[in-house]
Amino acid sequence: xxxxxxxxxxxxxxxxxxxxxxxxxxxxxxxxxxxxxxxxxxxxxxxxxxxxxxxxxxxxxxxxxxxxxxxxxxxxxxxxxxxxxxxxxxxxxxxxxxxxxxxxxxxx
Length: 108
Description:
Helix content is 53%, strand content 20%. By secondary structure, it is an alpha+beta fold. The longest helix is centred in the middle third of the chain and has 21 residues, at 45-65. It is built from 3 helices and 4 strands.
């Protein structure tokens, strides 16, 4: 019983420490956008330049349009570019253990 409690508290402590902050989410969006854009635009100098610019733009959008719901052991990040208008046109990410996972994408 005691070992189980210690293990549970240890796991909770690690999740608390590695709950991703908003800056980590921006970096995640920047990296994902850069990967996707480089794949679409190619690895030429022009393609890399556009991919980097697009990734920076996506990170700015993530900073301005993302809402973080912090549950201390994990966070839910919702990115709704056109604001909360009642439509399901947003992306939702789970941030846990220093990682991000896409859990919902726009309905369209």
